[in-house]
Amino acid sequence: MGKRKRIVADQRKEQNKSTYFAKLNNCPTSPRKMRQVADLVRGMDAFQALNILKFNTREASGRLEKLLKSAIANYEQKTQARADEGQLFVKEIKVDSALMMKRLRTAPQGRGYRIRKRSNHVTLVLDTKTDNA
């Protein structure tokens, strides 16, 4: 690794030490369905978002709930403090498309229809309200 790349990598590592996030890669849900659930909790208090995700009926909400719990645990691990109610909020949540598996479904008269099984990457970033005040 060159000197310039090492300097940039070290800066990124230092920045990640004060950022509380969790990532979910290659989730087998279409990005559009995941974005609809992510829009519900963006900018919301972390524990209020957990309640919304817990009682939402969509499949993607279960995956996001688990991801949010992981981000809260990462916050507790980095700060060595308990996450209090009203202290954390969902600062940023990004849903990007990932690998697309292509399959064929047989069709009449010797044809085949393409099926695209989509997946996504989700990045969830938490922040404390005391930092922004």
List keywords for this structure.
single chain, 133 residues, alpha+beta, Ribosomal Protein L22, Chain A, 3-stranded antiparallel sheet, flat
Structural summary, described in words:
- With 133 residues, the chain is α+β, with helices and mostly antiparallel strands.
- The chain has one domain: Ribosomal Protein L22, Chain A (Alpha-Beta Complex).
- The chain contains five helices and three strands; from the N terminus they run αβαααββα.
- A three-stranded antiparallel beta sheet has the order 1-3-2.
- Helix 3 (46-55) packs antiparallel against helix 4.
- It starts with a helix and ends with a helix.
Topology:
Blueprint lengths: L2 H15 L2 E8 L3 H11 L4 H10 L3 H21 L8 E19 L5 E17 H4 L1
Antiparallel strand pairs: 1-3, 2-3
Give a brief rundown of this model.
With 133 residues, this protein is α+β, with helices and mostly antiparallel strands. It has helices at residues 3-17, 31-41, 46-55, 59-79, 129-132, and strands at residues 20-27, 88-106, 112-128.
Q: Which consecutive residue ranges, at least 5 long each, have pLDDT under 50?
A: none
Helix content: 40-55%
Based on CA inertia axes, which overall geometry fits?
flat
CATH fold annotation: Ribosomal Protein L22, Chain A
Could you give me the name of the CATH homologous superfamily? Ribosomal protein L22/L17
The biggest beta sheet reads: 3 strands, antiparallel
**Overall pLDDT level:** 93
Question: Distance between termini?
Answer: 39 Å
